[in-house]
Write a structure and sequence with these properties.
The complex is a heterodimer.
Chain A: H1 4-33, H2 39-51, H3 54-65, H4 70-74, H5 83-107, H6 111-119, H7 124-152, H8 156-162, H9 172-181, H10 185-211
Helix pairs in contact in A: 1-5, 1-7, 1-9, 2-5, 3-5, 3-8, 5-7, 5-8, 6-7, 7-10, 9-10
Chain B: E1 9-17, E2 20-28, E3 32-36, H1 43-51, E4 58-63, E5 66-72, E6 75-79, E7 87-90, H2 102-107, H3 116-126, H4 142-154, E8 160-164, H5 172-189, E9 193-197, H6 200-206, E10 209-214, E11 217-223, H7 224-229, H8 234-239, E12 244-253, E13 258-262, E14 265-269, E15 279-284, E16 289-292, E17 304-314, E18 318-325, E19 336-341, H9 342-347, E20 355-360, E21 366-367
Parallel strand pairs in B: 3-9, 3-10, 7-8, 8-9
Antiparallel strand pairs in B: 1-2, 1-4, 4-5, 5-6, 10-11, 12-13, 12-15, 13-14, 15-21, 16-20, 17-18, 17-20, 18-19
Classes of the chains: A mainly alpha, B alpha+beta.
Chain lengths: 215, 372
Amino acid sequence: MNWHPLLLSFQVAGVATVIVLVVGLGLALLLARKEFWGKQVVETVVTLPLVLPPTVVGFYLLFVLGRGSPLQEWLGVDILFTWMAAVVASATVALPLMVRTSKAAIESIDPDLEKAARTLGAPEWRVFRDVTLPLAARGIVAGLVLAFARALGEFGATLMVAGNIPGRTQTVPMAIYDLVEGNRLGEANAQVLLMTVIAFGMLWGVNRWQRGWWR
Amino acid sequence: MVAIDKAVLTLDFRKRIGDFRLEVSLQVGEEVMVLFGPSGAGKSSILHCLAGLMDPDEGRIAVNGEVLFEASGGRIRRNLPPQQRRIGYVFQGYALFPHMTVTQNVAYGLRGRGDVGGRVRSVLKAMRLEDLADRYPQQLSGGQQQRVAIARAVVMEPRVLMLDEPFSALDTMVRERLQQELLLLWERWHLPILYVTHQLGDAFAMGHRIAVLNDGHIEQVGLKEDILSYPRSRAVARFTGTKNIFDARVASTNPEETLLEWEGRTIVAPPAPAAPGSPVTFCIRPEQVMLVRGGEADNRKENLFQGEVVKEVSRGATISLFVRLDDGRGGRDYDLEVALPSHAYSRFRLDIQKRVSVSLKKEAVHLLPTPQ
């Protein structure tokens, strides 16, 4: 069995999840606790990849990463059709899951708890570290696991921006597609089973975590 | 002693919240000042402004001469963040950190200061919480949670302590005990306490002085006896339980008394600076209305009227009678509310439809300063 797609999938999903953690948590905090002009628009745009066909997201990303884009023209960054493009695609489609889940967790915290911490002398970073973060931890971890699982299964947008290059950008979902195309159903079965087990395990873990069985 | 002459805390600010306008001007000394008023009157917003959790539009907030907030002409000149104000805030609903033990909650405001352990222990002892030190908030009763919330606020030696409806969710026994304990704490620490409540009994049990709030502004500030006996507006009279508020007209005045004309009756009231013929509003508390026995019903009693009991409501230790006076103009179900102790009620052998004589003692008749 060819293990390269699986390792690459984990590498892409792992890096994407780190990006999603930083960007998603920041957005969740902003949307849950601050009022600003255009908040609804930001929230809608962030959620869009959840409902758009992945190919549409991929098409937009081609403009962001591709030839003639500011990224490529001004900064000389050309990551199209590399594994890093797959990271960008995965992170984009996984972000809404993280933002929505952790935003709900933060909103469910009584704002008086954060205010109380402030009146007790805690600077903002300590309010976040001591009150917001621990009380929203379950939602944040759940959001991360969902984001990781979604990134692992990414196909459409990744195909558009990273392609399907065996040994370079071929992740497990791509490999399965190729195997079925080539009528190598035995190998496809093995990969499909692997993906199913991993996805099942993670969702089961999230549900248990959220119900707090092991507490 | 209550030192109200020396203002420790000065609040003087205005704030617009949508259509709601908050306007506060209040001096607080080393006393328990109760902010009393119906919900939505702006009591919690005042606490938020003092704590630095909400910014007034303009005005000034100062403690011990230090300016915490100052803004004029739409420009904020000084605005100390809540972290640096040292204002103890006991939130409605307590706002204890659910993931921290009692000790961790109380120690939270002390981080970076000396002898944290010793100070936490001594406050826990003072609040009778030593045995609960390792419990989590959800393992405590409401009264215990409230004591933790107070301990957490006082351990950092605040310059002002604010409590937002602290005991309204607790049952009577626990509430009365905590009220007494809080007053003992005040005896010990002598710091200004702002105490928010919408319950009259709570306000009178706790306050040295009471500020009555209505619709974003302070209607009246004063000693509780004065608030009770000499309300300055119809709203204050209503909130403090003066049910009998009437519109009348000044018939004549002299240095001894004012004569009022009230729906064809004559009322003798204390002297007041009012011109004959001008409209006035007068009020009398239900417990100040005297029931007069039939035999005593002679002309020596002031403001003596006959009537009939049309309704009665038992309130435990007292009973409220609703009396319709003879020669009334009609329209209303009753004219006067009379409160009397239950034992007096049985002594008078009262009942619905019984005839009674009532006397409105001159000293108990209070004229509102402006007709309202």
